[in-house]
Specification:
alpha+beta, about 120 residues, 4 strands, 2 helices
Length: about 120
């Protein structure tokens, strides 16, 4: 009779070892993402989570174990903002309404002028 004495051994055997491999993969994914976020902004603490749920059903001395790995949690990141100007009629403009004439476009090159030497 083989006796399972601790949860570490049990987790390694569930689903023929596939559960442990999947859970380890999810844990690594979350840690990699948190590290990437932390490298981008080192003064901010980022939190995430990986969960494992074991559902147990016992009948006549036999236990059935069904595992669930809910989707990992990652921090909700703010989206980047974009600025436009609202002009008449509620339309959006990429140019400041009072500055659009500031740069009317490319100017002609006066080829009749000769460069001067110093």
């Amino acid at each position: 009779m083989q006796i399972i004495r601790d949860s570490q051994a049990l987790l390694g055997m569930l689903e023929g070892g596939d559960l442990n491999a999947e859970f380890s993969g999810k844990l690594n994914e979350v840690l990699e993402k948190l590290l990437e976020l932390s490298n981008d902004r080192p003064n901010v603490t980022y939190k995430g989570g990986v969960s494992l749920k074991l559902n147990l059903a016992v009948k006549n001395g036999m236990v059935e174990i069904n595992a669930e790995i809910p989707p990992p949690t990652l921090p909700k990141l703010p989206r980047k903002s974009t600025v436009y100007w609202v002009v008449e009629g509620g339309r959006l403009s990429t140019e400041h309404p009072q500055q659009h004439d500031m740069f009317p476009g490319p100017r002609e090159i006066d080829r009749s002028r000769h460069p001067t030497s110093n």
